């Protein structure tokens, strides 16, 4: 098994163990037994349990944002871009509930020594998405407001719905309300909700 495959196997085992036992209760030995790796191999790749959790968090974070950015790249207008982000967000969570729960448990998953790196990684991903949307801000299609507001306004309701679904408190499929949630986000972010902004986001500024 290659080094990359070994690391991937350890992270997959860690996610399974964290999901079953909880992050705090899980041990290095639990993870070792699940993936049949040596303790030495685990410490070599990740250092300790906190290092495993941070690496797993980065893996989930990168996969989530990669999906967001790949689908967003196909958006030909601002309204479709908003719909794409909301739709991808919920599809990713429904497809990977264990990883989604892990990412939602950030306070338990990411130790203080890794928090700054995770924050910077998240910020870089968000900046990439914001760059894709920027032409529509300049055209006046999307409202100008403090950057910190866009995430909550765009995905706040979807986040709350996802949390309820992941905890078993939702009685319906979250994918069934994507159109409703994306429409609400569009009405909140658009200067004129009846105008989609026909220029492609990749157009020259």
Inertia-based shape: elongated
> What share of the residues lie within helices?
over 70%
Poorly predicted regions are 197-205
* Main beta sheet strand tally, sense and closure: none
- Number of E strands: 0
Radius of gyration: 19 Å
Q: What do the pLDDT scores average to?
A: 91
Output the structural class. Answer: mainly alpha
Proportion of beta-strand residues: under 5%
Q: Could you tell me how far the N terminus lies from the C terminus, measured between alpha carbons in angstroms?
A: 48 Å
Q: In DSSP terms, counting alpha (H) and pi (I) runs of 4 or more, how many helices? A: 10
Which CATH top level class of the largest domain fits?
Mainly Alpha
CATH fold descriptor of the largest domain: Tetracycline Repressor, domain 2
List the helices and strands in order.
Answer: HHHHHHHHHH
Name of the CATH architecture of the largest domain: Orthogonal Bundle
CATH-defined superfamily of the largest domain: Tetracycline Repressor, domain 2
- Overall tally of domains: 2
